[in-house]
Amino acid sequence: MTIETANLRLIPCDIEILQSAIAGDEKLAQKLKVSIHNNWTEFGVGAMQYSLDKLSANKDESGWWTYLPIHKNDNKLIGSCGYKGKPTNDGTVELGYEIAPDYRNRGLATEMTLALIENALKDERIKSILAHTLPQENPSTAVLKKCGFVKESELNDPDDGLIWRWVLERK
After folding, report:
1. Interstrand relation of 35-36 and 150-157 (parallel, antiparallel or unpaired)
2. Is the separation of the CB atoms in 114 and 95 below 8 Å?
3. Looking at domain 3-126, does it have CATH number 3.40.630.30?
């Protein structure tokens, strides 16, 4: 289900949308009937393929992967966001987000993150929401703090090296 905010429409990716994203910006623009911002993703096609593989393998994960944020006034795709799979057995879900450089510092990442939090907490299974960042203060850590996350620990990730783990507990 699409998530609406004041400035954004977060479109959940199904298999067809992910296939369009992998095929390129032109195909994705046609599928979504939007314009596509240059450099809308730093995560790249690999992240879309990963989500596609996960959704293709398990339809239960629908709504728990990639969302595409459309800036309403511009009708433009400006990043990506979502979850890293359905809630775990202990009630945890992880979220992530990215915003195209021209749309940064406008509060849109915070708006997007708050919408993902609200959406996740509609599921009674969710006890906590996780996020990970690079291990230094940066715009992403500022977004998480604004949204109520607390830095829980530092981890050594096999792919990314040292990262910070953030958590938001259900109240």
Report:
1. unpaired
2. no
3. yes
Q: Give the pLDDT of residue 159.
A: 86
User: Which positions ≥6 away from 5 have C-beta within 8 Å?
Assistant: 111, 112, 114, 115
Q: Which residues in the chain belong to E strands, given as ranges?
A: 3-4, 8-12, 35-36, 66-71, 76-77, 79-83, 92-99, 128-133, 150-157, 161-169
- Locate 75 and state its tokens: 């009708």
pTM of the predicted structure, to 2 decimals = 0.96
Can you tell me the distance from the alpha carbon of 30 to that of 4, in angstroms, rounded to the nearest whole number? 21
Residues with Cβ within 8 Å of 10's Cβ and at least 6 positions away in sequence, in order, are 2, 3, 4, 67, 68, 69, 70, 81, 112, 115, 116
Mean pLDDT by 10 residues, the chain (171 residues): 97 97 97 96 94 94 97 98 97 97 97 98 97 96 98 94 97 88
